[in-house]
């Protein structure tokens, strides 16, 4: 299975997905959409979109920008067109955080500010009866996931809401049987959390669902479980 990912900032990579791909021997390529405010090149200079037939699974990563900031980040518009083409061609797609919001927007849903930011390790619950592509068989009914977001998405038409929690009602959705959007991060590594803390520290304003750095970095069991869950999800995508 050939994997391609869209990377919006240098400090948010695909984490354990890369480890899984290396173990499997799957090739991984990427489009670097490293943002520069008001950049004229779209995508940025040196960035090339792959052809649709060059990959089997598209992973759309997170980033600090919002999906509606197209004037500030001009690459968002062609990125949405690329995602639309991948959807029309029936590609397997996983969107993570911003990536899930991009999928939602392309599928006709809405993205808006959440009532409060959610940053750190918080529980997520599966929605009963939403058995799609084996997700309910590989994830427990309730699990801990890492979050770093201020926006939320609606559930697009023809999609199923498959997870939520107290802080953010819509945490995951499935479109058909080959497209999955997560608001949370199961792929993130300890190093990935450290990079977010370094680059996005300004987001850590006091709030009901905002943990401090020590709390985020000390949850070793949560991190291991998240990686196990991500690997199981990837395994289900192998068989689609």
Structure description:
The chain is α/β, with parallel strands linked by helices and 240 residues long. It has helices spanning 16-24, 76-88, 98-106, 135-138, 190-199, 213-217, 220-238, and strands at 3-7, 28-32, 57-60, 92-96, 111-126, 142-153, 159-164, 172-175, 179-182. α2 crosses α3. The longest helix is centred in the last third of the chain and has 19 residues, at 220-238. The protein starts with a strand and ends with a helix.
How do you describe this structure in short?
This protein has seven helices and nine strands; from the N terminus they run E-H-E-E-H-E-H-E-H-E-E-E-E-H-H-H. It is α/β, with parallel strands linked by helices and about 240 residues long.
Q: Could you estimate the helical fraction of the residues in percent?
A: 25-40%
**Which geometry do the CA atoms define?**
globular
Secondary structure category:
alpha/beta
Based on CA atoms alone, the radius of gyration comes out at 17 Å
CATH evolutionary superfamily: Class I glutamine amidotransferase (GATase) domain
Helix segment tally: 7
């Amino acid at each position: 299975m050939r994997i391609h990912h869209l990377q919006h900032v240098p400090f948010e990579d695909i984490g354990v997905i890369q480890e899984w791909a290396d173990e499997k021997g799957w090739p991984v390529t990427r489009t670097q959409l490293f943002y520069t405010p008001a950049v004229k090149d779209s995508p940025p200079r040196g960035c090339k979109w792959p052809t649709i037939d060059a990959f089997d699974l598209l992973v759309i990563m997170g980033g600090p920008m919002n999906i509606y900031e197209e004037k500030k980040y001009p690459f968002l518009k062609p990125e949405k067109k690329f995602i639309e083409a991948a959807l029309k061609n029936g590609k397997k797609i996983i969107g993570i955080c911003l990536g899930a919001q991009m999928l939602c927007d392309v599928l006709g849903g809405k993205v808006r500010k959440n009532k409060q930011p959610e940053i750190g390790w918080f529980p997520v619950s599966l929605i009963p009866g939403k058995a799609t592509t084996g997700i309910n068989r590989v994830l427990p009914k309730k699990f801990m996931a890492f979050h770093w977001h201020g926006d939320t998405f609606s559930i697009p038409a023809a999609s199923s809401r498959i997870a939520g929690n107290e802080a953010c009602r819509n945490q995951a959705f499935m479109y058909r049987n080959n497209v999955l959007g997560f608001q949370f991060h199961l792929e993130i590594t300890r190093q990935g959390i450290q990079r977010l803390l370094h680059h996005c520290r300004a987001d850590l304003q006091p709030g009901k669902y905002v943990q401090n750095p020590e709390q985020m970095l000390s949850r070793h069991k949560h991190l291991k479980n998240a990686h196990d869950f991500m690997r199981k999800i990837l395994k289900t995508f192998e068989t689609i």
